[in-house]
């Protein structure tokens, strides 16, 4: 069962938009999906219409108070469930500082419920701290949203280094599944050049035995679409807010590509530890 972290230590690249709408698209395909919001900003939680507050138990209670994940699941629609975040989560870094095995908390909690889902997606915070390490220890795949501008590859090496260290030290099955271009402006020279550079980067990586040697950019690209930016303020995924938009079309294509890759065992690739 694929467990996927949506990760990039940069903010504003499309992580949350991808985590929410890819989850919703997979759910629309009939898959049972659990989305875990692991960002103290709680944007994915809000995007799905859940307003964080004292009466909403969150992933903070799981990581810092040992509340079982099963107790805080929020059904969103038929086959989509959410584990909400809250601002309290910002304190987790400090509260867990002295805890032995603090990177493995999410993994251990997830083992108890993961069997009930076809996909688990984790929306990560824009940092490489203890929360993100928990995501990387729990999943088998990383998907990196990238915005096609000239600095797209900049910062990627730091991220890949982190993935490699985690794969070596705490999670031998961790691989990079792929890169998804977000806010893509088709037909521009810039987008063409950057996508070519990224293609070449992963082409060269094939020769080495790294967690990203099998990774590639997804063929489905997410175009810049105002409906995707509007949907969060209505607390809805793109499929309820604007099902006929380009945004819905693109995330549907991404979900189908991902599901097809999973079905043919292209993704996730299990790498010997
Ligand atoms: P991150 O989670 O990486 O910080 P977000 O998914 O929150 O990034 O996206 C940053 C901003 O860009 C948000 O306001 C979001 O609504 C907007 N956005 C994301 N993807 C698109 C897109 N394809 N077209 C238009 N706006 C987008
Ligand atoms: Mg986000």
Topology overview:
Blueprint: E1 3-6, H1 15-28, E2 33-38, H2 43-47, H3 59-65, E3 74-77, E4 80-83, H4 92-95, H5 105-111, E5 119-124, H6 130-138, E6 141-146, H7 156-169, E7 175-181, H8 189-205, E8 216-217, H9 226-230, H10 238-241, H11 246-263
Parallel strand pairs: 1-5, 1-6, 2-4, 2-5, 6-7, 7-8
Antiparallel strand pairs: 3-4
Helix pairs in contact: 1-11, 5-6
List the helices and strands in order. EHEHHEEHHEHEHEHEHHH
Number of helices: 11
- Structural class given helices, strands, pairing? alpha/beta
Quote the distance from N terminus to C terminus: 18 Å
**Strands, total number:** 8
Percentage of residues in DSSP E strands: 5-15%
Average pLDDT reading: 92
Helix content: 25-40%
Which features does this protein show?
single chain; 273 residues; alpha/beta; 8-stranded mixed β-sheet; 11 helices; 8 strands; binds magnesium ion
How would you characterize the overall build of this protein?
With 273 residues, this protein is an alpha/beta fold. 38% of the residues lie in helices and 14% in strands. An eight-stranded mixed sheet has the order 3-4-2-5-1-6-7-8, sandwiched between helices. Helix 1 packs across helix 11 and helix 5 runs parallel beside helix 6. It binds adenosine-5'-diphosphate and magnesium ion.
